[in-house]
Design a protein that fits this description.
Radius of gyration: 18 Å
Mean pLDDT: 87
Number of strands: 0
Order of helices and strands: HHHHH
Distance between the termini: 35 Å
Helix content: over 70%
Largest sheet: none
Shape: flat
């Protein structure tokens, strides 16, 4: 896992810099900067809206006595998408938007759920619950 994290932390910024330089060469430096700011602002607004929807859905699920499992997976996707939109670059912006959009989110929710189940089955994932003291 650590090896993949190191690879991602090296490859993604390199791809982002390459993409920024390519887009800057194509449309100009100021236009590229404006496009980055615009995607950041639009992404923040979308993340805020989707975050509110997820919170309302979790509250609804709990009010009818259901565990908010689906809402938690949505929240993980919205949080990850919001974080990616904060990173400068077009690759992370696109991936962040895909995580935030409701039509594409179920794919990632299924992947996250499969990963959690795999970790639980292998005994590598532990929950520590401390009730009220």
């Amino acid at each position: 896992m650590f090896r993949w994290l190191v690879i991602v932390l090296i490859v993604v910024p390199a791809l982002e810099i390459w993409g920024l330089l390519a887009v800057g060469k194509l449309i100009g430096g100021w236009q590229t900067f404006a496009l980055l700011v615009l995607t950041g602002l639009l992404g923040a607004a979308l993340a805020r809206r989707e975050g509110r929807k997820v919170l309302e859905f979790a509250r609804y699920q709990m009010s009818v006595g259901q565990p908010p499992g689906d809402a938690i997976l949505d929240a993980i996707c919205v949080f990850g998408g919001g974080l990616m939109l904060l990173a400068p670059g077009f690759l992370t912006d696109v991936f962040g938007l895909v995580l935030l959009l409701p039509p594409t989110r179920p794919v990632f929710k299924a992947l996250i759920l499969a990963w959690i189940r795999k970790q639980l089955d292998s005994g590598q994932f532990h929950f520590i619950w401390r009730g009220r003291q």
